[in-house]
């Protein structure tokens, strides 16, 4: 969402609030809510996005909704954030939906899937292609109302102690890679695990894992992976545009006034847009620093490895779709939206970038 539409949404909410009788909850004292996250405290981009969202909502409601943010491990462990909000132990989570694939494989499609949608494409599907309604229907079964609330853009394939010269080099490789990307790695013989962010560096350092995918240059540099693994691989096949979510306990969401719900929608959309711009800016700077100051060696996967990723990705997505009717319905919608947008992406974005480069 562009700044103009964000301000228009906020202005509409304010106008409506001024023209309608204020309900008791809006007239009284500030309402205190708890947000749990899957991110380290004050972590650049991810952690600060959660804090910014809380601040946006506080300011736009003139303090009537006051959100205290708890980083991973402060109130609950990172990967227990979903359950905390579902049960009502917390009010909101900020995290990546593919962390919840144990609840339903369908959750992967609302973060990123291998060879899936770019950030612009997933925004199109969620906002205009029916994705939000499908997501709402899925999350309602877990007592949650979800929103896109950040996007890190395209991610790289991660940090490796040793070079990957063929598919054989993936066999037995211990790698941190969550979601369906991790399943692709397993299909190709690697041992993929899901670890929350703070646990990745120690696992690399202790050789519990041989390689790790996290986000992209800005966040990866902050964790210092370059101090252990010097080979940084691209392109990222597993997360072409990673959407992050704010999930509200459904009863909490339904207790908001219409004006407050409008504010939350606008705040999440604004943060989604802002964070993508933030990552676009900082990743370029961080990549230059990693290569020029820290001696990181950028490596492109060989053609046979990329072909192996693509074949395995197709199988993994089809198997996920076959896991249950809800996932099948969401996958069908996702595929339809991707097929509609990918040709425009090719001749629009890719065509321009190629022309600019040449």
The name CATH uses for the topology of the domain at 3-151 and 240-280 is: D-Maltodextrin-Binding Protein, domain 2
Strand order of the largest sheet: 7-6-8-5-9-11
**Poorly predicted residue ranges:** 1-27
Secondary-structure content class: alpha/beta
Calculate the terminal CA-CA distance, rounded to whole Å.
Answer: 31 Å
- Using only CA atoms, what is the Rg? 21 Å
**CATH level 1 class label of the domain at 3-151 and 240-280:** Alpha Beta
Supply the CATH superfamily name of the domain at 3-151 and 240-280: Bacterial extracellular solute-binding protein, family 7
* Count of separate DSSP helical elements: 13
Tell me about the largest β-sheet.
6 strands, mixed
Question: How large is the share of residues in beta strands?
Answer: 5-15%
Helix content percent band:
40-55%
Shape: globular
Average predicted local confidence, pLDDT: 93
Query: Order of SSEs, N→C?
Result: HHEHEHEHHEEEHEHEHEEHHEHH
How many strand units? 11
Instruction: Using the 3D structure, state the CATH architecture of the domain at 3-151 and 240-280.
Output: 3-Layer(aba) Sandwich
Describe this structure in words.
With 358 residues, the chain is an alpha/beta fold. The protein has a domain at 3-151 and 240-280: Bacterial extracellular solute-binding protein, family 7 (D-Maltodextrin-Binding Protein, domain 2, 3-Layer(aba) Sandwich). 50% of the residues lie in helices and 14% in strands. The chain contains 13 helices and eleven strands. The chain has helices spanning 3-19, 24-27, 46-60, 81-87, 119-128, 131-140, 179-187, 200-205, 217-223, 250-255, 258-294, 303-321, 325-357; strands at 31-37, 65-70, 92-95, 144-151, 158-160, 174-176, 191-193, 211-212, 231-234, 243-249, 297-300. The strands form two sheets. A six-stranded mixed sheet has the order 7-6-8-5-9-11. A five-stranded mixed sheet has the order 2-1-3-10-4, sandwiched between helices. Helix 1 (3-19) runs antiparallel to helix 11 (258-294), helix 3 packs antiparallel against helix 11 and helix 5 (119-128) packs across helix 13 (325-357). It is globular. The chain starts with a helix and ends with a helix.
